[in-house]
């Protein structure tokens, strides 16, 4: 029987596209200081190439390439400060997830397992989920981050449940699905279509970034093996609810 539902935050509860667009625009401003003829379209082409080649870490890798270690570290510090101060303004709740969380909270215990700044917690409270997530495994607070199994074990230990009694809902196979399956949890790979995430487009570069996201994104990278394949997939909040229902059938073997 399923007792606990654990959520990632980025692209599961909250849309990350706006903050990633911000990060790429800030990186571009820094690049222009030494490469004034460099185009934003070229930076996004390099982004897509980096994802095809290496998967995750594309922004930091490009910052290292063009700014050097010191420049990258300074940019991370400055952008992180802004994200801490304006977390909720830089994210939107994904369509339908508010209602889905409320529905699930009536039957299950809910938790978070997320690589996030600690400021995500008051932001989630302000978004209407105050008190709903009983276990909150936030990487900055726990001291480990996905895909390290330690953060999953931390969450399960605090929840007091066995892995097979828990579901992990995540947007990335590498960070969420594969490690959760390895530890014995059920998994749902949630990938909202980019056009349906409610991203706020403020300028031309926002639109260019979203088009780049539609061409390729780390959340679209498929499992490398059957062992890493999710137990279910969903592309909407409704799909999440339907997937969980299939896990919790009374005649389901444990």
From TrEMBL:
Keywords: Hydrolase, Magnesium, Metal-binding
Cofactor: Mg(2+)
Keyword Magnesium: yes
One BP annotation, GO: small molecule metabolic process
GO molecular function, one term: metal ion binding
Region (Disordered) location: 220-240
NCBIfam families associated with the record: HAD-SF-IA-v1 (TIGR01549), HAD-SF-IA-v3 (TIGR01509)
Protein known as: HAD family hydrolase
Source organism of this protein record: Eiseniibacteriota bacterium
């Amino acid at each position: 029987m399923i007792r606990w539902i654990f959520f990632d935050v980025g692209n599961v509860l909250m849309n990350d596209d706006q903050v990633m667009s911000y990060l790429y625009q800030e990186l571009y401003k820094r690049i222009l200081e030494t490469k004034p003829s460099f185009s934003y379209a070229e930076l996004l082409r390099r982004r897509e190439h980096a994802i095809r080649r290496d998967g995750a870490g594309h922004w930091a890798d490009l910052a290292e390439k063009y700014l050097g270690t010191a420049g990258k570290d300074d940019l991370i510090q400055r952008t992180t400060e802004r994200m801490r101060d304006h977390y909720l303004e830089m994210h939107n709740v994904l369509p339908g997830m508010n209602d889905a969380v409320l529905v699930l909270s009536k039957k299950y215990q809910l938790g978070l397992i997320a690589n996030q700044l600690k400021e995500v917690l008051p932001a989630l409270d302000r978004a209407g989920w105050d008190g709903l997530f009983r276990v909150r495994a936030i990487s900055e607070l726990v001291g480990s981050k996905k895909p390290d199994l330690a953060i999953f074990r931390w969450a399960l230990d605090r929840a007091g449940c066995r892995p097979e009694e828990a579901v992990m809902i995540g947007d990335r196979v590498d960070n969420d699905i594969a490690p959760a399956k390895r530890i014995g949890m059920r998994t749902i790979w949630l990938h909202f279509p980019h056009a349906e995430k409610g991203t706020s487009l403020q300028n031309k570069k926002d639109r260019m970034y979203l088009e780049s996201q539609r061409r390729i994104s780390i959340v679209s990278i498929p499992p490398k093996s059957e062992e890493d394949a999710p137990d279910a997939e969903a592309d909407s909040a409704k799909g999440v609810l339907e997937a969980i229902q299939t896990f919790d059938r009374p005649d389901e073997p444990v």
